[in-house]
Amino acid sequence: MKRLLLPKSAFVALALSATALGGLVHPAAAEEHALVIARDMDVNSLDPARAWCDTCQIYNTSVYEQLVTLDKDNKVQPLIASSWEVNKEQTELTFKLDPAAKFSDGTPVEAKDVKWSFERLKNIKGNGAFIADPISSIEIPDTQTVIIKLAAPNSEFLNQAAAGFLGVINSDVASANGALSDATAVDKDTSENWFLANSAGSGPFVLESYEPNAELRLKRNENYWRKAPAIPQVVFRQVKDAVAQAQMLQSGSADIAMQIDPETAKTLEGSDIVVDKVPSYNFVYISLSPGAKANTVKLTPEVREAISIAIDRTSLIDFTVGGAGRPIASPIPLGFPGGDGHEIPGYNPDRAKELLAAAGVGDGFTLKSIYPDMNVYGVDFSLMMQKIQQDLSKVGITVELSPVPFANWREAANGDHIPLTAVFFAPDFFGTSQYVDVFGLSEGSTWAKRAGGENDPSIINTETGKLREQALAAATPEEAEKLWFEAGDQMAKARIIIPMVSPDLIMAHSPSVKGVRYSACCNLPLAEISN
């Protein structure tokens, strides 16, 4: 789980003293100034093979580079690889590296670095290792050629190659500082602390310093082999509260605020701050667990459907994000293959009562709800669950709300399971297989376990896994799209995962800042920004 992202600051670094801002003015260019980003940083690591957070996604694609990247339309574009070929079976990809590519120390990026980095990701066995798991072997016939062989057809692997986890590391430098790529890496790699103070990538920025729960500083890679970024330095400031982020924008002490919610955004109206609302690929959902030990009634398909249509999604979206979001029917993001066109369940409490009566629970029952005590993508989970509690009470269902820290939620979800919960999801790459993997209810999958499939095998779906394999082997994107849609339709009809809203992303920034955009691979592409 992840867990995907600006006032008046024309001269932020010049308007405040160098002492107050830690010397943000680039010494070689007085007219240049740092880009200050206010956000709630969730950094768990700065090692590309271990990092697992939204801030990490920005870091991994700014300091390191991938073989390819995605443009604003999610089309694959060259990066370290200048060209590539995919065989007809979609089991082998051959990448030709750009001979101009070089690391921040000036040494060339070579095929051995790609092989080492990908194998290390797989063998470190961190959260992002699933992207490398399909790789069966990597061949490097020369310094500029990488041949990746997959264990099964995978039409999405080229898109996956743009993910931050597959950043290419300078293998010589990292190895000299305790990094390993072989099968012993999971136990014997000792480089994680080194990565907290150093970087070894070919990206437009390099790590300058990191102070946990306070500040992350990047500086321009003076040896960057492509067009140099316009900004000399990027400073991420740890600011948890959306109101505090907005105040930093208004005072000029931040250029970008990344977690402004709709209500806070209203306070910026009438100022010169740019507030753009753009559709996101993130979504918030509730989930039902038929196999939870705390269930007081059997959560049959009819009962699950009743719960779904007893929730007024339109008013929920208005209540939680002020209407700044889209309803979503299937646990595949709108805009992803197979995600569009699913029918949004209509609000129908009368029909819900009929279904509950037919299931023998028309007199009502109680649902226990444990959920993370969080505000994610501008959605306050407690407010959302209170709204759902009110809606379900109208059809005779009493919901007992128990907000808990995320770690406690995870323990409950994976332990005795939770009858009704709320969670969130953001993409790790532009591709639909990740959603079928997590939400498809195949035996052994994440939500087959969390929904209590071992106690109620009726929820296990044997078809979504087959559809996934067929889509990944599809000859054309159009054929794959149909298969992904069918998988999405099955996931929606199971009503185990019931999406509530895909919140808009609010991009708030100083009017002097240009090039801010949301990206499926990179979250916020720093190299495109100027101030």
UniProtKB/TrEMBL annotation:
Pfam families membership: SBP_bac_5 (PF00496)
SUPFAM superfamilies membership: Periplasmic binding protein-like II
Signal peptide: 1-20
Localisation: Periplasm
InterPro entries (UniProt xref): Peptide/Ni-bd, SBP_5, SBP_5_dom
Keywords: Signal, Transport
Gene3D superfamilies in alphabetical order: Dipeptide-binding Protein, Domain 3, Periplasmic binding protein-like II
Domain Solute-binding protein family per the UniProt entry, residue ranges: 75-444
Domain of life: Bacteria
Family to which this protein belongs: Belongs to the bacterial solute-binding protein 5 family.
Protein name in UniProt: Peptide/nickel transport system substrate-binding protein
Organism for this UniProt entry: Pararhizobium capsulatum DSM 1112
Lineage: Bacteria, Pseudomonadati, Pseudomonadota, Alphaproteobacteria, Hyphomicrobiales
